[in-house]
């Protein structure tokens, strides 16, 4: 059965990006990474229009859906956005996030995602201000901070993302304190064992990692090492 909101319950989550998986063995790859401890499967959709790369769509999402029971976290790097929302919902996506620059009506697109029974997320490129959040807080389930420019796996983490994560954390905490719903703070791009601790300390609770996980021969070992760093960062900042 497809997962629901309870999948948001662990305090921190690791979301391997299948962009760096072996596309010829995708079913086996997602099963293996979930068996190794992945909390979500991050699914990067690129259209050679919004970003200069072309990847996978709803048919591939539907194909991997029966292989795993964790949430499928669809990251849309496409323009326009709305046409694909019902298609991904039907394909078994649980979370659908998009870039605010890629849609004419951000509020409407967030509503559309939720109307289709999915959690809704906004993605912020390195130079995109967080202001897009301010008037749609009640429609957000995920805020995704890009720590690389979108389009490719295996890029280096941009340090400016740490300040943006702290800023997003403060906005989310203020909202929750005022009685607002839970909003996950996700980070995507260049996340490795050696920087995940400081990223956690900056406020992220959900960590996308593509090349770091799928480029490692032992998925359980690398996910375990990431969790250890996350736990250590939690202890230090507590
Ligand atoms: C980039 C994608 C990322 C990417 C992350 O546009 O959104 O999800 O796959 O890959 P790594 O972890 O290799 O930077
Ligand atoms: Zn992504």
Automatic annotation (TrEMBL):
Cofactor field: Fe(2+); a divalent metal cation; Co(2+); Zn(2+)
Cofactor binding mode and count: Binds 1 divalent metal cation per subunit.
Source organism: Bordetella bronchialis
Binding site for a divalent metal cation: 42, 44, 75, 188
PANTHER family according to UniProt: RIBULOSE-5-PHOSPHATE-3-EPIMERASE (PTHR11749)
Superkingdom classification of source: Bacteria
Gene for this chain: rpe
GO molecular function, one term: metal ion binding
GO cellular component: cytoplasm
Similarity comment: family membership: Belongs to the ribulose-phosphate 3-epimerase family.
Keyword annotations of the record: Calvin cycle, Carbohydrate metabolism, Cobalt, Isomerase, Manganese, Metal-binding, Zinc
EC number: 5.1.3.1
HAMAP family for this protein: RPE
Catalyses which reaction(s): D-ribulose 5-phosphate = D-xylulose 5-phosphate
UniProt keyword Manganese present: yes
Residues where substrate binds: 17, 75, 151-154, 188-190, 210-211
Protein name: Ribulose-phosphate 3-epimerase
Pathways involved: Carbohydrate degradation
Summary of the function given for this chain in its UniProt record: Catalyzes the reversible epimerization of D-ribulose 5-phosphate to D-xylulose 5-phosphate.
Residues annotated as the enzyme's active site: 44, 188
GO biological process: one example: pentose catabolic process
